[in-house]
Amino acid sequence: xxxxxxxxxxxxxxxxxxxxxxxxxxxxxxxxxxxxxxxxxxxxxxxxxxxxxxxxxxxxxxxxxxxxxxxxxxxxxxxxxxxxxxxxxxxxxxxxxxxxxxxxxxxxxxxxxxxxxxxxxxxxxxxxxxxxxxxxxxxxxxxxxxxxxxxxxxxxxxxxxxxxxxxxxxxxxxxxxxx
Length: 179
Description:
Blueprint: H1 2-13, H2 34-57, H3 63-73, H4 77-110, H5 123-148, H6 150-162
Helix pairs in contact: 1-4, 2-3, 2-4, 2-5, 4-5, 5-6
């Protein structure tokens, strides 16, 4: 799995030139895009769910971790079920994305110019892949907004930001229309 994640990180690192920002180390107080925050959050939910299922397969109580997480987030059973479904769908879509992006990321890495930029013939495809990755996460966010409603989602979102595992950065709401 680490190799798959590495490809996605490599793909994100290919974003250069005028069509996307080059990732740089985040400085203290940097603002994280909503999609980056929720990608990390969806992975956390997926991971907790996977650990719980693995424990249950071994005859252990896997529900304890899920219940603790649900209580910490202040989620009802129905909201937790929606969140687990969204995280599982995100993961499936993300895995498919990684499979699609890997050959393009490898080609771009192998063909970078002296300035570290991908070749111009790959730039449109890489840009489309970056957008596709963002869209996968945004679709999950949109599903949560629709299921929770605006008031409950605002409360949920505030808690997600407060418990973010992205250290050393400010996780504030993005401006409308900006991710």
